[in-house]
Amino acid sequence: MVGRQSPARSYTITVTRAGFLSGLAISNGVFNPGFAATTTCYTDSLPDSVGSLTVTPTATDSSLTVNVNGATVASGATSDPISLSTGANAIDVVVTDQDGVAQTYAVTVTRAGANDAYLGGLAISGGALAPDFASGTTSYTASVSNSVDSLTVTPTANESHAGITVNGTAVTSGSASQAIPLSVGSNAVSIQVYAQDGVTCQSYIITVTRGTSAAARAIHPGYA
Q1: CB atoms within 10 A of CB 186
Q2: Closest Cα partner for 165 from 199, 133, 125, 117?
Q3: Does one domain contain both 152 and 200?
Q4: Which pLDDT tens digit goes with each residue over 46-77?
Q5: Measured between alpha carbons, how far is 208 from 104 in angstroms, rounded to an integer?
Q6: Rounded Cα gap, residues 191 and 138, in angstroms
Q7: If we measure between CA atoms, which residue out of 35, 28, 51, 40 comes closest to residue 93?
Q8: 56 and 123 fall within a common domain
Q9: Same domain, 95 and 183
Q10: 120-165, pLDDT tens digit by residue?
Q11: Is the peptide bond preceding residue 155 cis, with omega within 30 degrees of 0?
């Protein structure tokens, strides 16, 4: 009796990689969420003072190729410094196996804007500020004669990205404001400085006193 042969059977084995990276670190800040091999999207938030960072990816095995923003990085090694602009910065870590299968780990690093809302300089076209300008001094006075019926203010931001207004009108840092009319007596000039972070602001005030005319002084000798 001839034995019966069993029909041929095919078996398929599917190997699923648990993750292409076993580690991913950055030189500044903390990943959110914390690193996990199967998590591929991360965020990080940094202050304005951090202008660059590095990334250290570690592959699950030596056959994998790792690129950080297009540049090859050895597993466990640190990337070249990556410059950070203010706002969101995308960093792509692409891991590729020998078959050309790739996995991208996307990191979004948000760099905050500067929070410096101080002036580095302040000048007026008529009279002199009292006290002398200092960045941390926010209130000034000045006196002008009656013949001076207007003046300009030239504010200079301490940090180049800050915005400035004089009496509500935008002024470029280091440039003169519009002419500000002066009434006889006390005149308030308001300078607002807005930091790059969109949150921090600082107010400066100049109280300019314009003197009375000679005719007014003749009629009222007590007038200044």
Answers
A1: 11
A2: 117
A3: yes
A4: 999 999 999 999 999 999 999 999 999 999 99
A5: 62
A6: 9
A7: 40
A8: no
A9: no
A10: 999 999 999 999 999 999 999 999 999 999 999 999 999 999 999 9
A11: no
Residue entry with tokens 């951090």: 50
Assess whether 76 and 148 both reside in one domain.
no
Verify that 45 and 127 share a domain, yes or no: no
Q: Residues 159, 114: contact at Cβ < 8 Å?
A: yes
For the stretch 3-30, pLDDT in tens is: 556 666 666 655 445 569 999 999 999 9
Q: What is the CA radius of gyration of the chain?
A: 33
Q: Is residue 130 part of a domain?
A: yes
User: How long is the chain?
Assistant: 224
Where would I find the H helices in 69-135? none
Residue 224 in any domain: the answer is: no
Looking at the chain, the whole-number percentage of residues with pLDDT higher than 90 is 85
Identify the domain boundary among 111, 131, 159: 111
Beta strand 102-111 with 41-46 is parallel
| Number of H-type helices and E-type strands within the chain | 1, 18
Structural domain boundaries, residue 56: 21-111
Question: 90 vs 41, 93, 109, CA distance in Å?
Answer: 11, 10, 6
C-alpha–C-alpha distance, residues 107 and 93, integer Å = 8
Out of 55, 86, 111, a domain closes at 111
Residue 9 lies in a domain: no
Whole-model pTM: value is 0.70
